[in-house]
Amino acid sequence: MSAPAATLSHRPPRRALRELIITEAKCAWRIPVGLALGVLVPVVILVILGSAGGLQKTIPGSNPPVTYMTNIVPVLIGMVLVMIALISLPTVLVNQREHAFLRRLSTTPVAPRWLLAAQVVVNLVLAVVAMILIVAGATLFYHVPAPAQPGGFALTALLATAALFAIGLFIAAVAANPAVAAVMGTALFYALMFFAGLYVPRQSMSVTMRHISDYTPLGAGVHAMLSSMQGAFPPAQPLLVMAAWAVVFGLAAVKLFRWE
Amino acid sequence: MAPAVHTPESGEVASRSLAQPVIEVWGLRKSYGSTLAVKDVSFEVEDGEIFGILGPNGAGKTTIVECISGLRRPDGGTISVLGLDPQRDRAALRECVGVQLQEGTLRWQLTVAETVNLFASFYPRPADTSELIEMLGLGSKRNTYYRRLSGGQKQRLSIALALVGNPQIAILDELTTGLDPQARRDTWRLIETVRDRGITILLVTHFMDEAERLCNRVAVVDSGRVVALDTPVGLAERAGGGNHMRFRPSKPFDDRVLTVLAGVDRVEHEGPRVVASGTGELFNPVVHALNAVGVEALEVQLESATLEDAFLRLVEPSPKGHEEVTTP
Q1: In the CATH scheme, what is the code of domain B242-304?
Q2: pLDDT, tens digit (0-9, with 9 covering 90-100), for A104-137
């Protein structure tokens, strides 16, 4: 009998992570929740709003002046992130835990956190594709100026993504079952999108409301993205707010995540 | 069945037999909160055998195999699997032990082949996946989605995943629960095929017929303890009161004709019939002794003790029912 030496390294083959990512991508394609909610819905909304016209007017009281159409671009990016990070990602993860698939993985050389990593990668790709479609579509077809500060815009998008994915993983960590995860995601959708300015632009909010909005991840995100679209490097405060959400919820998710 | 004795010869390469333990469990204890699920369990599993863990629901069977496969940390005792500690050497253990869990479903958006190939990518030396799929009788279901498989097919896929890493040991938990009789028999044949490939199998079951059919040795577990450990036949003989020979004598005879026989423990009368009970071979000595006094045995029925008899005798009916110890 050849007992394997315990001292040797027993890392799973490198192709395991690649296969997991490909598999998760297939699943995301076959049951396209993230694709439909996170990519299709925001892009369709952009097309409808852009084609409807009447949104090229300047928002009263905006300083520097900004059109409704330009303002909707960061809001839709926020919608992409909420749909993908807070609804698609946690629902799938909680489902896999509920069906003991994570536990099944932990009997193989692959740790269940690899599945989590593969899920995050696939959803990140979806989010990036959706964000590019929205910015490119708005710029090319709907008279929205290209981000004058591309670096600042990218940094903001990155921080907003980090914050929302951290919150999504936190939901996956604490939700007892897929239904709870879906309720949490949907409730956060309304709250975060309200403060991002989906219903009322931030510029039209009362001072108190805008103040609250500044401390929500997407309120800060829309603020910083709009600044970088208009040529200024985003101010430190919204960037720090997003970073704080990312760190706090990221650490909480790591601490609380249950594999079975 | 070679007993687990270590003679000086057993160390030689030439005399490789079944006698080498690949799993050793000593004094295993595990509790969930205040519930003691496993009290003091010790046994050894030899290389190449099918070792059964048999017991009623909630006896602690699943907890025992979860500790062996490193999914749970024991509270006490030691476990050695192929010389590895399931907690300390988790990574090494996972490469050589395949596990089929009692519950859990797979990704239902994936086909049989995709699922097997995915799990194959986790192992350094995986089995040939298309051959494995064929061997498990899933060849025609290769491109079928998991959600469209029958219960038996899902179970076979689950076994395929336990074998895809080319393990030395396969741990199979409640393999045939919920399957129809034909699917159960197919699964049993499959397990024997796996054993014939040299894989040691640790089989958890609460079905007597399954243990009797498949296992070389069986540990009967009840309320977190091993109450008996033997071959299925040995268990049946030991606890079931041996064999019975029932017959109608052609004319009355003195019981002592039979009770003097070495193999007969007792003689009972059931109306016109006589039941001679004992261990080992009954038929020939009884017929011979009766002939010697001019009696013929008519309408002879022979009954062997079954594992079921043994099981019912070994496993105490708990007044509170067996639900009291359930694994979370």
Answers
A1: 3.30.70.100
A2: 998 999 988 899 999 999 999 999 999 999 999 9
pTM across the whole model: 0.81
pLDDT digit string, tens, across residues A176-208: 999 999 999 999 999 999 999 999 999 999 999
Q: Which residue has the tokens 């890392």?
A: A11
- What residue type is assigned to position B272 of the chain? P
Q: What is the DSSP string of B1-33?
A: ---S---GGGGSGGG--TTSEEEEEEEEEEEET
Count CB atoms within 10 A of the CB of residue A64.
10
User: Residue B182 corresponds to which tokens in the numbers above?
Assistant: 């034909």
Phi, psi dihedrals of residue B117, rounded to the nearest 5°: -65, -40
Structure token digits, residue A54: 């009447």
Cβ partners under 8 Å of residue A206, min gap 6:
none
**For domain B17-237+314-321, is the CATH number 3.40.50.150?**
no
Residue A172: name the closest of A249, A106, A248 by CA.
A249
Q: What are phi and psi for residue B136, nearest 5 degrees?
A: -90, 10
Interface of B with A (CB under 8 A): 20, 22, 47, 69, 71, 82-85, 88-89, 91-92, 94-96, 98-99, 101, 103-107, 109-110, 114, 117-119, 121-124, 161, 165, 168
Q: Where are the domains of chain B?
A: 17-237+314-321, 242-304
Q: Are B264 and B277 in contact (CB under 8 A)?
A: yes
Contact B165 A16 (CB under 8 A): no
CA B16 centroid distance within chain: 23
Contacts of B95 in chain A (CB under 8 A): 4, 10, 109
Domain ranges of chain A: 15-256
